[in-house]
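ARCHIVE CARD
CATEGORY: sequence design from structure
SOURCE FIELD: tokenized fold
FIELD CONTENT:
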């Protein structure tokens, strides 16, 4: 599937992963170390939403 996408298409892909709020600290890590490692090793940008902050197009 990814073979048919251009590099521009791939860079525009967004993926939403839901995690319980009590697991957010584990994803972020001490001093942001875990999230920085995820971003560096995968070449992605990770955004953590604040509580009650919704993804565009969501209401709740």
């Amino acid at each position: 599937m990814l073979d048919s996408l251009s590099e521009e298409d791939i860079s525009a892909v967004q993926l939403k992963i839901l995690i319980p709020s009590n697991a957010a600290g584990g994803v972020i890590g001490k001093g942001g170390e875990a999230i920085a490692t995820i971003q560096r090793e995968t070449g992605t940008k990770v955004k953590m939403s604040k509580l009650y902050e919704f993804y565009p197009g969501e209401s709740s």
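CARD ANNOTATION: The chain has a mean pLDDT of 82. The CA atoms of residues 14 and 45 lie 10 Å apart.
SHELF: design records, drawer C
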